Amino acid sequence: MDGFLTTHVLDTARGCPAAGLKIALYRIEGDARAQVRTLITNEDGRTDSPILPSEEFEPGVYELVFHAGDYLRASGQAGDGPLFLDLVPIRFGMNDDSHYHVPLLLSPFGYSTYRGS
Question: 90 forms bridges with which residues in the sheet?
Fold first, then answer.
């Protein structure tokens, strides 16, 4: 298969890529959730390789978990007490053999995502 999965994380509060943010990928099958891999974003807010490369691509349901709280603490954007956002899970399906891009626009008090290109 030629499909693959990428992401890009932008820190909208600071107006820059979110470097050093941990991302975990899970494959979902029924009630089971199996971790596929964990990657860290680079200086451009991207991972150095696809999150799911074409040689491992399989259609199905997946979940990306962005460790936003750790990033917000490290970047000095976390105040005292519990964070509003800590883990940001995004569950989505991939059903055709193509490039899936799931970006995250992140701030301490909100986020958004979409299927990018």
Answer: 64
